[in-house]
Amino acid sequence: MGAxxxxxxxxxxxxxxxxxxxxxxxVRRSVARFMPGETLDDAIAAAHELKKxxxxxxxxxxxxxxxxxxxxxxxAAHYQQVLERIHAEDFGTEISVKLTQLGLDLSPELCxxxxxxxxxxxxxxxxxxxxxxxxxxxxxxLGVYKRLLAEYRNIGICLQAYLYRTAADIEALRPMKxxxxxxxxxxxxxxxxxIRSREAxxxxxxxxxxxxxxxxxxxxxxxxxxxxxxxxxxxxITAFAAAEKISRSExxxxxxxxxxxxxxxxxxxxxxxxxxxxxxxDYWYPWFVRRLAERPANLWLLLRNLASS
Length: 309
What we know:
- This protein is of the alpha/beta class.
- Helices cover 49% and strands 14% of the residues.
- The protein has 13 helices and eight strands.
- Helix 1 (3-12) runs antiparallel to helix 12 (285-294).
- The radius of gyration is 18 Å and the shape is globular.
- The two termini are 31 Å apart.
């Protein structure tokens, strides 16, 4: 792991920096590169624009590690309103939630109760995605996911390619026919748990992607989404799909709002499934800094905005 990435991941957890970052205009301008705004209206407007280009969307309200029961229930109520609005406007957007937003730090039972509220109103043909958080939460998150997957087929889980355990996690989930979003991973993890080298992470990502696609074709995985902005990696995944004669409509790539827009449109125009994760909310600091850590070259955006302020 590079020194810059290590420093950024540490900064993402710094409360002092979080409390002060929003005061600076150059930081807020940089954040705007990755999210259309802080309100639900902003996110939904962006989703409608993407739909015009045949690009799907997933909404996520930023926040994590809630330690108050009422606040966790308020988050569930907010997402319930989001789903009701999505259904009323009928534009097919999905949502993605962090379990620590729904009370996982308080108790798995409270978290499941809040998650059930959302699954009860979500359309069965659409996926309700669960984000994966730091490695300390993987077992608890998978436990909640497995219990609810037994009842709700339209629930999806995020898995991280940089964790050594992920291949085994996929194997354990296959009998349940999971829906999986594969990411590289964006948390600071110890070397005994996570791959450190970018090249090795990419290599493992490709192995896991091929495993998931083969399992999807065999009916052992319900749906797979590859969340990456790495155009070379995307090219290798789509080449593998073509070689295996997998339909383009069965291969889904998800990216973050504002990143690789040309690639998002190219994939959609080419018949691949293209989707965008749209984040909104005022708790953006840790999320934003982790985005910088995923690709430290994005620091130039921050520096340009500083120079122009």
